[in-house]
Design goal:
The complex is a heterodimer of chains A (203) and B (605).
Chain A: E1 2-10, H1 22-32, E2 49-51, E3 60-70, H2 76-84, E4 91-99, E5 112-119, H3 125-135, E6 141-147, E7 150-156, H4 163-172, E8 182-193, E9 198-201
Parallel strand pairs in A: 3-8
Antiparallel strand pairs in A: 1-3, 1-4, 2-3, 5-7, 5-8, 6-7, 8-9
Chain B: H1 11-15, E1 27-28, E2 39-45, H2 49-52, H3 56-66, E3 71-77, H4 81-89, E4 108-112, H5 119-128, E5 144-148, E6 164-166, H6 170-183, H7 189-197, E7 202-203, E8 209-213, E9 216-220, E10 227-228, E11 245-246, E12 255-258, E13 260-261, H8 272-275, E14 280-281, H9 284-298, E15 302-306, H10 316-322, E16 332-334, H11 342-349, H12 352-355, E17 359-364, H13 368-373, H14 380-392, E18 397-404, H15 411-431, E19 436-443, H16 460-471, E20 479-483, H17 486-496, H18 502-511, H19 525-535, H20 539-543, E21 558-559, H21 564-575, H22 583-586, H23 599-604
Parallel strand pairs in B: 2-3, 2-4, 4-5, 5-6, 10-21, 12-15, 15-16, 17-18, 18-19, 19-20
Antiparallel strand pairs in B: 1-11, 6-7, 8-9, 13-14
Classes of the chains: A alpha+beta (203), B alpha/beta (605).
Amino acid sequence: MSRLRMIFEKRSFACFVRHVELPQLFGRIARRAGLKVALTQGMSPHPHIVMGPALPVGVISLCEAAEIWFEENISPEEALERMNAQAPTGFRFLRAARIAPDSMSLNKCFDAASYWLCPRDMGRLAAVKRVLSEEFGAETLLALRECADGLELVMHDPSQTGPGALVKALTAREEISGWPEICIARLCLGRWRADKSEITPLL
Amino acid sequence: MRFEEFDDPRWPLIAGAKWPSRYACSEWGNTRPKEKADFRLCFCFPDVYEVGMSYLGFQLLYPRTKDIDGVDAERAYCPWIDMERALRAARLPLGSVESGRVLRDFDGLGFTLQHEMSFTNILTMLDLGGVPLLASARSDSDPIVMAGGPAALVPEPMADFIDIFCLGDGEVVNPPLLELLKKTKGQPRIERLRAAAELDGTYVPALVSCTYDEAGAHFASEFPLPRKRVICRGMDAIAPRNMIVPASGIIHDRVAVELFRGCSRGCRFCQAGMIYRPVRERSPQLVDETIRALIRQTGWEECSLVSLASCDYPHIGTLLQSLADLHDDGIKVSLPSLRVDNFSVGLAAGLEVMKKGGLTLAPEAGSQRMRDVINKGVTEADLEAALNAAFEHGWQKVKLYFMMGLPTETDDDLRGIVELAERAAAIGRRRTKRAAINVSVAGFVPKGHTPFQWVAQNTREELARKGAFMKKQIRSRAISFKYHESEQSFIEGVLARGDRRVGRAVLEAWQLGERFDSWSETFSLERWMEAFARTGVDPVWYSQRERAEGESFPWDHIDTGVSKSFLLREYRRAQEAKVTRDCRSFGCNACGWERRGCEWSVTSA
């Protein structure tokens, strides 16, 4: 058995595929790749795949995380190659690492995620930035800065707070009317290093 | 934008849609468009993506089309009403899943007419795709609009909008047609249509005129009539080697492999049972191989053994046994429908997927007399055995499907439905306190090319009375009794036996805003009635009139292979409640196919 942690990107229209559907999708990719995913123990065994923090539909990502328990011993490199050869449009596995079966669960291995965000109406960028800094305290919004083409920000605890909360706040304050008026990408997932003001990526 | 996908003008539309994943276009399979192609065909499914991707026909025809030299295939689906509104507001056209290529930029469009309630969606897709709605308004540079599927065999209501109807199995009809259209590209439209009309399995309505009198509809053409449906005789030669797998879930999210085409049971209400004859079986070895190959290629964790009556496949038991090892790899096997008998329920009991949720049986009618009228070869003993078996095997919920408004029906026959439901509940209660019987009764819609093509459809008032009549007699609390909204069946009935004049009402209804007629949330009877009134079409005349035996029907110029004299014979036997037994077990019934090389009529002769 090999427990592999994999980082994948969700680009283009594939970001409209719902997060809850991904375990099934990865099971199918693995089957096409000729890899057997181990089954969970218990009453109703299902493929042992653990997903990282949920990503709302419509947000693209460069850093989604998943762990897959393969029945065979397989090297991370080989898994990447074989899975990528069978991945549908918009999905690509970027990095993989073998994890000891008894080591800490995936969702305890990160506490922050960074995002790029830009309203469709660039004229609202400053207002959006102001609203976000007003709506989210420093313990949630770890960093927020303007860059050439939008905003970059870091949020604490991506399992609890993410793009959904940002869009909700901006909509409530009437900076945007909803998802169609904002573009968001998740850039990095990992541990927040307050001393360096940056995220150490998961992989 | 830093990420170029956000620059796509469709992005904000999808982000604002009610169900974005149906527009995600993320798929696995051989879908990359060819760089160069002389003829680009877009398969168009007139419903949303997750419905259209569940349709086996396009999965079968798509790779075969791409295999033709110089021809390429893409696909398009009908946007839901919110997306249609958004596309119009943004002035964006409808394009294909593969490349976004706009429908008007294809050389041909291939619609499937799976049922009448998708007709208005075809107009939506043409309009959003920039293609003139009326065939007569299309220029040489517009795509050739083709349509196949069961409703293409009763084509007149859509005749104004379709250039070429394809009659029969696409595996046989399409290749010569596409070759011809590829070769004649650039030539005047009318010449290409004339050439297409010479081919087997095509019907070009622009070249066939029709007139009407008291005796019915009459067709005239310089091309020979009737137009014949063509079939593929060897199922083993057309087994699929690959399928397209969507990244997001669809309705039928699994491998589907056909066991056979056609059905010989001869249920008199069933259009599929008549228009897909004769029965053509696939060998069990090839079914087994195909399933294994497709599971490897698609990664799907479930496969379904499909046909019109899978329990009738003579090798079904051994096939399921030979597939049993798939279970070790977590692959589940399912059957789409069950025959009402002990054997079939026993088969289903061995299948994990089927054990989840309820068991569905379709006795179709409550009394034995009524089942004999419709030639549903199910006896009281079969029913009893099936119900007993279901609860013995551990099912707690059994769904029973019936029809009401069948020809010769009396209140006694309706009481039969109630009694059958009560009996099912009693059988269930003997086994478990949690036994639940879900009864669903739908209004019968008479269809062309069936023995009931002559009968009057019940009015909505009659059906409402019948439904309420049954519901108030239900006693057992284990029974949940539902009968269906008959407004949609009424319109379906008009379109199912309509002539060319009905097309005007289809266009008018669409212009009034009618969309997705098979979805109750978008269907509007008022809009349809307004459309009928504006176009002078009397819907009652089409659906609720008993037709004379000698009437010429507006689908008589389409020859499915089953003769009108056989259908009439069956209609008369129905009126006498006489059963006609399955020709494959009890000898040929001379449906018409015996003259065209039906292997079963040979063996039984």
